[in-house]
Structures are given as C-alpha cells and as structure tokens.
C-alpha cells in the first residue's frame, strides 16, 4: 500500500469519520434487447404499457427501439439497488406478451439494417432531438452497433468524505467543489490503470453471432456455422469490434483535470469531420444527424468510464460539469452477465465498490499520452486474450503475468474491503475479493470461460445459448410476478410519463431547426470549470 492510501484508510477508520463510508450512492442502468420467442429481434414498438420512453425515469430505450434500458434509483447499498432493478424486470415482463429480454451483451440474430428501427420518442422537439441523434449514430456506426447492451454502474462517495480528506491534507486553498471534481478525476485515472482486471473477472462476451459483423474484416475464429469467437477472449464487446469508429480514434479526453476533459469534449462537439460533412445534417430535406462534427453530443464519446453530474432541464452535460463539478462516476465497461436474471449480482457490486473506493483513495499520478497508450494496450490485450495461459501485461515498464498482477491488486484491496465490512457489518466485501481470487487461479471459472463451455453444450451456437438463457430468465420472472404495490407504482409512473410527453408535444413552440441550432450553440463553457 502507498503511504497516502494507508493514511486515508486510517483516517476513515476513525469512529468519528467511518459513517461517511455508508453514504454515497449506487445506481445501475441495464440495457437489453426485446426479442421474439424464436430469438430474433422484436419488430414491435416500445410497449405503451411501460410508459413513455422519453419521460419515464426508470424504463426507457437506448439506441434502437427494441433496446430497453432499465434505470434504478440511486441507493446507498448495492443490494437495495439490485432489488429495484429486479422489480423493474418483474413489472416489464407483465407487459411484454410473449417477447423475451435478451440475456447477452452482444445482439441476437439481427435483421437487415433497414429493418432495425431507431428509437422513437414522439414529435416534441426534445423527442426529435433524441431520435435524430440516433439517426446520426446509425449513419456513423451502423445499426447493428446500436443493439449492443451493457451494464452501467453509477457510483458516488459521500461528499463529506471528500471534505474530510481535503481538511486532513491541507487542501484549503481550493473550493470543496474543485477538490471533489479533481478527486473523481483521480479516481478515473486509477480506474484506467486497473480496469483490465474487471474485464478478466467479469467479461462475458467471448463470442458473437456471425451476422453482427455485417461483413466487416475481423480476426475471429469460427466456432460453428453461425458463431465467431476468440478462444481466450473475455469481452469482444469492449474490443475494437465494439462501439468504435475512425472519427473517435483520435479522441482521448485528458482526465488529468476537469478543465482539460471538458475542453477536449467541447472541441469534439464543435470540430467538423470531413466524411460527415460530405453527408451533411440533412438529406433531401430530412435530418440525418445533429451535426457533422466528430461527435454530435457529449454522450457520443464512447468511454469505459465518465465523470457525471445530474443535469438540469435544458442543460448539457459539459455545462453541468463546468457549473457544479463532478457528482459521480459512470462505469460503462461491464458486460451483461448472462447467468444472472438482471445481468449482475450483489457480489459483483460489492467488488466494484471495493475497486472504486480503492481507486478513489490510492495515489493517482497524472497520465502522459505515452502512458495512456500503454494502459489502452493492457486493456485491449485483456479483452481479446485475457485467459491465455501466461499472458503478460506491462506494469512499470516490465512485463508481468495478468494472474500475478491481479493477485497483487487483490492483496492491495484487502484493507479497503475490511474497512467497508467493518462499516457495513458481515464480510461480504472480503468474500467478493476471495471469489475473484478463485477466478485468477482458475480461468475456467470466469464468466467468459463459462459462456464458451455453455456454447459447446448448446451446439456451439451463440444464438442458441442466448435464447436458452433468455427463456430461463423469463421463466424466473414470470413465476415471480411483481407485488401489487409495485404494479400500482409502475402503472402510475407509466401513466404520468405518457401525460408528460403529451403535454410537451402540445405546448412546444418554435421549429425543430431552431431548436437544434439553439442546442448546438449552448455548449460553450467558461475557460475554467472549477
């Protein structure tokens, strides 16, 4: 352990401070495709009985009309968060008819591009903005990419914790907002250093349906007639086969400070990209993308982790960060766990809490461009070859086996897990570490290895395995219907969301062209955010 981590853990272990460890919030966003009973993509619109995808706070759609997104409230304990996620699944299954929720991160068998519907949010200017943005994504990345699903883990620490650290370390020359923002950026830098470990431990997409690639060049191996894979891969979703393109290849927001991060994204949303400029924002008078810039809006930047702030109505993400600082971080690299009905379990959440608290408290030097490239290589090596016997990663200029580095990190995590267990009661965090150590000792127990074993048991077909797991999860939720209280609550949320969308469409004024123009002009931030 570093001296800084030791001092901070001792400080937080003090009886007068330890309660802040019970603060902070955890939220989950789970993406999942709706599929037909035969495992093919559903062709139906977002079920009206679930509410408005535009205004519902917990049940919406992501890029494709059939890509559901379930958003939990933010809770202090991940177990409570997962109870809320479970309730959303149970209610949704009462409104899906014979459709299933797809169990994998990588998509089911997909129809031709023209038959994949882009998410629709109604005729309000805001709804059209969200729809046209997704038209732009289809144009830039292809619609198949818009059917990839993941788990996003939203994490914050009690704001009192940052104030305790700042006071103890004599950081009285900066505002609490500035200290907190830069502390979250430091957390993100450590996440970059060690997130390859999450890919080894939780990556669950070593294979995909051949049709997903749409003829793109690749170096995957054929497992069966409809399935491609890499024998030691952990997460093809997070590889260069996932949600990436040439325009973003040179976009590397600097996470050494909030100012530089925001400046990089601000430049990207204002910098024209020639191939997009040749297309234009309209074709035959119809909007096809919001802008011809490197990214249309900040959320198009595809990253494994983001600094976030809850935005106000009419506010853009970078404005919120500038005006009020970083409030939480969003971890975006987690695959859907196909063996879990809701895509993630409590033990994984406990481990993430240890991993992220360690990242927040440990020393976090600035990252040079050269170091950033090295970290990206470690990550890329893990997602494609993570279970290869003897695989090495680069640490401090030397090659070290993934297994040894992983075990070293778990040892460094132990005092953090012990501190969380002391505050939480029990030993769930330590048990989570022990479960991950077992995966490092035996790669066959990782989710990616278990997926490949299950594929072999399902005729080596990714689609057959995905459908089998989807049916299994559907049977679980249908045999455990929601409580009457949850049905009433979600039914009311659906009613209110539809009424809100209708009111928005009735009351809006001004043209969509003017609305987009004003939106694009609203991304200016002051020279300094903190």
UniProtKB/TrEMBL annotation:
Keywords: ATP-binding, Glutathione biosynthesis, Ligase, Nucleotide-binding. One of its GO terms (cellular component) is cytosol. GO terms for biological process: glutathione biosynthetic process. Its EC number is 6.3.2.2. It is an enzyme of class 6 (ligase). Residues 10-380 form the Glutamate--cysteine ligase domain. The keyword rRNA-binding does not apply. InterPro entries: Gln_synth/guanido_kin_cat_dom (IPR014746), Glu_cys_ligase (IPR007370), Glut_cys_ligase (IPR006334). It catalyses: L-cysteine + L-glutamate + ATP = gamma-L-glutamyl-L-cysteine + ADP + phosphate + H(+). GO terms for molecular function: ATP binding; glutamate-cysteine ligase activity; metal ion binding. Pathway: Sulfur metabolism; glutathione biosynthesis; glutathione from L-cysteine and L-glutamate: step 1/2. SUPFAM superfamilies: Glutamine synthetase/guanido kinase. It holds the Pfam family Glu_cys_ligase. Belongs to the glutamate--cysteine ligase type 1 family. Type 1 subfamily. HAMAP family: Glu_cys_ligase. NCBIfam families: glu_cys_ligase. This is Glutamate--cysteine ligase. The gene is gshA.
